[in-house]
TrEMBL record:
The keyword Flavoprotein does not apply. Residues 1-56, 72-98 are annotated as: Disordered. Keywords: Transcription, Transcription regulation. GO terms for cellular component: CCR4-NOT core complex. GO terms for biological process: regulation of DNA-templated transcription. Residues 70-208 form the NOT2/NOT3/NOT5 C-terminal domain. This is Uncharacterized protein At5g18230. Pfam families: NOT2_3_5_C (PF04153). The keyword Transcription applies. InterPro entries: CCR4-NOT_su2/3/5_C_sf, Not2/3/5, NOT2/3/5_C.
Amino acid sequence: MPSYMLDPVQVSSGPDFSPGQPIQPGQSSSSLGVIGRRSNSELGAIGDPSAVGPMHDQMHNLQMLEAAFYKRPQPSDSERPRPYSPRNPAITPQTFPQTQAPIINNPLLWERLGSDACGTGTLFFAFYYQQNSYQQYLAAKELKKQSWRYHRKFNTWFQRHKEPKIATDEYEQGAYVYFDFQTPKDENQEGGWCQRIKNEFTFEYSYLEDELVV
């Protein structure tokens, strides 16, 4: 189960680092590859000594075995999705819907949101305000399809803005787009809930959430 479903995110405050500049409309970064993912040409084929070398292949095989061990099925994986339960229930007229629309649990709806440029904001809203729910899981899955990656330390989503200047087995460094989930409490507070650019940022892979496979 992804870590963000075990530890709910506090949305009252934004990411714990200096904010970057808001991204301009029309700027896209999803075609620059995925944070933490290296191409097959860099890794080499498993068992192919001509690609990188036998020692590299052996280490890669051991890393894959270790990753498989930590991602083995858990008892919680067989649990049924939790039904929606409002945090602050309010008495409404009978003309208002009294139950959640069944379509909200349909993965096809979320795939459609993920393919719509205007639907990304809805995915972020579902992720932060439908925590520990099936909707949060579906939203996260679609965000990852768009090359967004979740940072477990800062509790927010990052995407490459440019090709990394530095890329190692432990981290990568460069310019990134991240989602500022802070919501202003008053009119005088600087607005959040937008995508921002963070330059010279070091993304350590130890904070990369990679439990959700898409």
